[in-house]
Structures
1.
Amino acid sequence: QVQLVESGGGLVQPGGSLRLSCAASGRNFSMNTMAWYRQVPGNQRELVAKITSAGTTNYTDSVKGRFTISRDNAKNTIYLQMNSLKPEDTAVYYCNAVTLRLRGPWGQGTLVTVSS
């Protein structure tokens, strides 16, 4: 059974940092382009950052220079280092494959709240 488990979220003040982790099990995602997404209640899920199997990365404009996506293929895990956090980064963060047919079931996500 494919499972994606996100962790590392929490409450942080503006300007702070968090590191999210996404552990995949049930299937090897190491050859897939993976991504972090985020969703605010009432809004569509937004792709924040993606990373290819070779390690090439791409970011949405609002997080460029602040977020860094990485992966450890041996652990079937991807990470999102988030620095200089802003209140508008508040959301539930999820990970999954970019290609629709390669996606696993969406996990529970991890809540990031940026507030003073």
2.
Amino acid sequence: QVQLVESGGGLVQAGGSLRLSCSVSGAIWSGSTMGWYRQAPGKQRELVAMITSGSRTNYADSVKGRFTISRDNANHSVNLQMSSLKPEDTAVYYCNFAQTYGNWFGQGTQVTVSS
């Protein structure tokens, strides 16, 4: 079955950086779209960034210029480099794998930004 394993969350001060990684197994990587979502307490899950199989990217307005998504096709993984972090970036971040035949989320990793 499809498995997504995330890593890299943690606690960081405002202005700091973190790098999230997600590896995918049990799925057809070719043609997939990868993304990162986040959910803060009391809020709906929202799209943070996405990258297509052709490496086209899309970002939420709130993270443009601060976050960078990239994919490693050789290792079936996706990364999210987060810089200039703000307290409002605090959330559980979820990796997403989307194919024509389905859509999966990872278990989530906590990112906490202190002021």
3.
Amino acid sequence: VQLQASGGGLVQAGASLRLSCSAPGTTYRSYAVAWFRQAPGKEREFVAGISWNGALTYYADSEKGRFTISRENKVYLQIDSLKPEDTAVYFCAAGKNVVRTVDGYEYWGPGTLVTVSS
């Protein structure tokens, strides 16, 4: 499964972005999908996850309310009220279940950069 994240860019604080995760040419409907992010000099951290059928969603405790994960043909991450500290490369990952650790996922995409200016 080759994942591809898109939708990042340079935005001002307070703006919104919607990131997309797709798997062109393959199906990942049977996989749980999660979003992680990695800021410069920091470890990759869990942001949000969604079960294979979209019925269950999970969020990092620190990000509840500003992040919304959903899935249709793609998996989306809506980020509202962006802050400079949200600046990071955002990755999507697929695995059997939603877990909050990096090693719980079999497949990763190359990531999309989100830069938030103050």
4.
Amino acid sequence: QVLLVESGGGLVQAGGSLRLSCGASGIFFSVYTMAWYRQAPGKQRELVASINNGGSTDYADSVQGRFIISRDNAKESVYLQMSSLKPEDTAIYYCNANYQAYDYWGQGTQVTVSS
């Protein structure tokens, strides 16, 4: 059974920081591209950041320079360090694992940024 479990969400003031974690099980973690998506109320789910199996990263323009994605293959985990948070970062954040035809999602963790 594949499980992706996110943690680290919460309520933070604008300008603050949070670190999200996603632990994976049931997959050959090191080959997967891992990503963080988010979905705000009334909006479509959007890609926030991704990191491939070689460690190359990609970011949405809206978070470039503020968020950092990283992975630890030994711990089968991916992280999202979020800094300089803005109220518009408020959303449910989802962890995603993708490899060829295989695509898995976590249950999401709420991030709320107050102004």
